[in-house]
Structures are given as C-alpha cells and as structure tokens.
Amino acid sequence: MSRYRGPRFKKIRRLGALPGLTSKSPRVGSAFSRSGRKSQYCMRLEEKQKLRFHYGLTERQLLKYVRIAAKAKGQTGQVLLQLLEMRLDNILFRLGMASTIPQARQLVNHRHILVNDRMVDIPSYRCKPRDLITVKDEQKSKDMIKKSLDSFPRNNLPTHLILYPQKYKGLVTQIIDSKCLGLKINEFLVIEYYSRQTKT
C-alpha cells in the first residue's frame, strides 16, 4: 500500500488529531459517529492507522519497524515508538523546522539538511544521541525553514532535543522518552494488530 496522499482533514476527522500529518485540528463534534460498540479488531486497526498516517509511512514500512522492534530488547510497543520518533523527518518536525512530517520529508529529499555536517537525503535516517542537525548554508534553504521556526511554540520542544533557532541547528541529546510523544496512541493495540505477521 502506498503512502497516503489524499485529503488530510478526512483522516483527522476519523482518527483524531494527527499533528505529523497536518497542523489542523478536527472541530468539536466533527468526528464520524458510529452506532454500536467497536470490535477489538476495529480498535486495533484505528490505532495502527493513526500511527501510520501521523508518521507518513506505508503499510510495508510500518510492518518493517514492528518486526525490528519485536526483535529488540525492551517492550515492543515502546521500542517501536522510539524507532519512529528518531527518524530524521520526525526530528525536523519536532524541532519546528517543518510544520508537518511530509514537509520535513521534502526538505530531506531536496538535500537541505545535514547530519553531523554530512548531507543526508533519506527521511528514514535513524538519528542517534549527539547527532547535530543543521540546515544547509544557503539562503534558499534557510528561508524555507525560517517561517516554520518563527511560528513554532518553544514550549512544544521535547526534552530530548535542543534547538538553536538563530543558527538553524538542532541537537539530539538522548533517546526519546515515550511519555513525551506528541500523539495519543495505544501502541500495544498496534503490536496486537501485527502479531500474526511478526511471528517467525
């Protein structure tokens, strides 16, 4: 299944706020109402979709991350969220250098971003503690990011990141604490959704 490119507001009306997909918020009472109680499968599917659309992943990409998390030490759900949060496109979004994750992905694809002074054009690049994220030293690159930085509320900056807005730089200080996520998600339901596909 390819990456979603359809109407974004339709998704947030159904799944709730998805800050990575769009900065818009659903109006009160705008969510679709469904009669009856949701099945367990429906709840797992919605949580999976919420995670997928927020981070802008294809179905295959998300399944790959779930399988990596299942093999890692620690709780699979928390490891999964940490893997997704440490993606370069998400780090740019969380630093306020882009207003959405799709916009951050475009910045990376168009080679506007450096990691530790090296050009990186892969949005899924996994950042590590002490990685320094900088904007290419060209006025065009800085102009594209300045608008997002100017409108970014500093109190939204996660504790694992440090932002130097005047220098167009950001520093990753540690692996994110799952309590600091900007998305309300039940990651255990996501793992349950994929449980059959991750069994070896």
Automatic annotation (TrEMBL):
Q: Recite the UniProt keywords alphabetically.
A: Chloroplast, Plastid, Ribonucleoprotein, Ribosomal protein, RNA-binding, rRNA-binding
**A GO molecular function held by the record:** structural constituent of ribosome
Which GO CC terms are listed, alphabetically? chloroplast; small ribosomal subunit
The membrane spanning regions, by residue number, are: none
The similarity comment for this entry is: Belongs to the universal ribosomal protein uS4 family.
Describe the function of this protein: With S5 and S12 plays an important role in translational accuracy.
**UniProt protein name:** Small ribosomal subunit protein uS4c
UniProt source species: Passiflora misera (Passion flower)
